[in-house]
Description:
Number of domains: 2
CATH architecture of the largest domain: Sandwich
CATH topology of the largest domain: Lipoxygenase-1
Radius of gyration: 28 Å
Structural class: mainly beta
Protein name: TerD domain-containing protein
CATH superfamily of the largest domain: sav2460 like domains
InterPro entries: Stress/Tellurium_Resist, TerD
Helix content: under 10%
Number of helices: 3
Pfam families: TerD
Number of strands: 30
Family: Belongs to the CAPAB/TerDEXZ family.
Largest sheet: 7 strands, mixed
Organism: Streptomyces flaveus
CATH class of the largest domain: Mainly Beta
Strand content: 35-45%
Amino acid sequence: xxxxxxxxxxxxxxxxxxxxxxxxxxxxxxxxxxxxxxxxxxxxxxxxxxxxxxxxxxxxxxxxxxxxxxxxxxxxxxxxxxxxxxxxxxxxxxxxxxxxxxxxxxxxxxxxxxxxxxxxxxxxxxxxxxxxxxxxxxxxxxxxxxxxxxxxxxxxxxxxxxxxxxxxxxxxxxxxxxxxxxxxxxxxxxxxxxxxxxxxxxxxxxxxxxxxxxxxxxxxxxxxxxxxxxxxxxxxxxxxxxxxxxxxxxxxxxxxxxxxxxxxxxxxxxxxxxxxxxxxxxxxxxxxxxxxxxxxxxxxxxxxxxxxxxxxxxxxxxxxxxxxxxxxxxxxxxxxxxxxxxxxxxxxxxxxxxxxxxxxxxxxxxxxxxxxxxxxxxxxxxxxxxxxxxxxxxxxxxxxxxxxxxxxxxxxxxxxxxxxxxxxxxxxxxxxxxxxxxxxxxxxxxxxxxxxxxxxxxxx
Length: 460
């Protein structure tokens, strides 16, 4: 593998180039600018990013991070017109949060891949002076050939300022103008009105709208097994309501006749207790797991790596130091935990928790319990799934894929509010032991332990 230093360059072969962005810490967005020999874009269409994912009929394409890889830009140099001198690749922090800089981003790495050639890597220097964007790589012409250069230059003004310097018009946030006071106008009836000229009656064509850097809603998606998706949230939005619903139709008529009472449980860790551990949130752990890591809120009381509180009693194992919302403890949206269950549905349908104050949330584990002898049928056979939505255009469905029978518990999805982008929804689908009534446990670092919580039978 070839590795470039800052300012280094290397010849490219023929064919499409895929440039991948890798980083650790705060999220970074990847964009591309198609630039002419004068150092400017030809039009706003020459900016390729999450809101404008293609230029020149697909010669340059933006691909979001997915199961196929990290966020990436694909460039087909042979398909670019002659007036495009280079394609500049840019990394940038969230444009909606001006407080984010590259100081919180670690191990930034670009990896460029071409068919039939060894990968090329570039690691820009650490950016610690408030930079919010960085020029990473550029693919540029040299005669009839193309080359790749490593840049690594930070930019304090962020993506909007950088794009503007290259000639892109960036949509500004709308500012409400104060209403002008009504003016009393007097007219002389004997004075003729001014004539209407042709230029006044002919309106000029409206200019095309400038690209907006505001990230679009996620839309409606369904997770694959083990998959995850992030919903962009403003953590300080007091009007925001995230709803998480357990939906089930009871499955077949025979299943419904035997009873179809499923219950939604929301196990939660508040932000004040949440720990960013060494394991990915949603990781399944065994009994005896002790969370270790940095507090999500460093100013919160309690040391990192604090052990969960253990509560023991007859017929019960340990419970956690935080809490659970379910049919006996509905919670509240006006007070802590700012999570509330809408009630107990005894028949096929839906149970929903409403989650507000995302700044107060750490992790929320959504589980289902099969009550009243329903443990003999699989949760999937009842058509069970979890649906999470922000009510603003982003909806994530978390289905079940396994036919695990004689199980009373399933942990379906974890909502991680410590995710820098907003809320990350992880597909879990972990089942309790066969014929075991012990509740799952959500640890302070978002790890999930099955068969570790208390036993509580539901009576019909």
